[in-house]
Amino acid sequence: MGKIKIVVVDDSPFSISIITEILTEKGFEVIGNASSLQETIEVVESKRPDLVTMDMTMPGTDGLECTRAIHKIDPNIKVIIVSSMMDDEIVTEARENKVSGYVQKPVQPDEIATAIQRAMVDEKLFDDLEEIYFNVFKEVFSDNMNRIVKEAPAFEKEVTANGTQESRGISIVVGIIGKYCGSMIVDLSYETAEAMTKCALKREMKNTEESLAMMGEFANIISGNACSLLNRKNSVFGFRVAPPTIFHGTSLNVSRTILDAKSIVAQTIFGEISLNVGFKRGANEWM
User: Fold this and answer.
1) Which residue segments constitute the domains of the chain, with CATH numbers given?
2) DSSP string, the chain
3) What positions does the domain Response regulatory occupy (predicted)?
4) Nearest CA to 214 among 197, 202, 189, 190?
5) What is the pLDDT of residues 244-259, one digit of tens each?
6) Are strands 61-62 and 57-58 parallel, antiparallel or unpaired?
């Protein structure tokens, strides 16, 4: 892909100047600007940009009306809102109007550049992610097993795992958001969790809750470390993790909603631990 061609829409000449300067310094090509709905339609029709940065508030119109007008001309043109206002209601409306990103003023150069790259990235990025993510999670899993309980796990053959699988007793689920949405599931038995907790604490457990808390933090560390490594490989991923959710009990089934998730069983001195990780193509989170 050559230089990304951008039109800047804002009712403030000062903002247009600042945003244009930032985008130019970041290597983008600003090919036009507009300050009203009609000007936006005219410049988009004539210039056919790859992306438009869009102010949210303008006299007689707003950024969402302008966005809808742009997508009538060409639905493939990406729009990123650049506005001083930012709250949950506005963000929700922006999503509903197929906005590809949202940056709050005053504009930070790295933030807007990353938002543009995320909006413009093609399917190759997901293919790149698929090639590397599971090895990253496996390496982080092994490293932290070694750090926390001085154990080097032996992995069985990697498989594709979908649908529902019977749990060993404890399942820790961590949601992942970013350019693509995903999840990580760590599944193990009560006995394995208790043995790992005793080893990590170097004492007997006080109760079952202590081992559940320990395994929750273990899953949190794995997912957080792995996502940080993926972000360092490509900042466009922008991955963040949600707090772990712990399910446990007898006759527990684990539902894998991520398509084509990868799963592997780690054999350890404490017992089996299943690691399942997957990302969903096209499901992106731009906030």
Assistant:
1) 5-120 (3.40.50.2300), 124-280 (3.40.1550.10)
2) --PPEEEEE-S-HHHHHHHHHHHHHTT-EEEEEESSHHHHHHHHHHH--SEEEE-SEETTEEHHHHHHHHHHH-TTSEEEEEES---HHHHHHHHHTT--EEEESSPPHHHHHHHHHHHH--HHHHHHHHHHHHHHHHHHHHHHHHHHH----EE---EE--EEEE-SSEEEEEEEESSSEEEEEEEE-HHHHHHHHHHHHTS--S-HHHHHHHHHHHHHHHHHHHHHHHHHH-GGG--EEPPPEEEE-TT-EEEE-STT-EEEEEEETTEEEEEEEEEETT-----
3) 5-120
4) 197
5) 999 999 877 766 555 5
6) antiparallel
Residue showing tokens 């990123």: 80
Spatial contact of 135 and 262, defined as CB atoms under 8 Å apart: no
Q: What are the structure tokens assigned to 237, written together?
A: 């991923």
What's the pTM? 0.70
Write down the mean pLDDT value for the chain: 91
Q: How far apart are CA 127 and CA 260, in angstroms?
A: 13
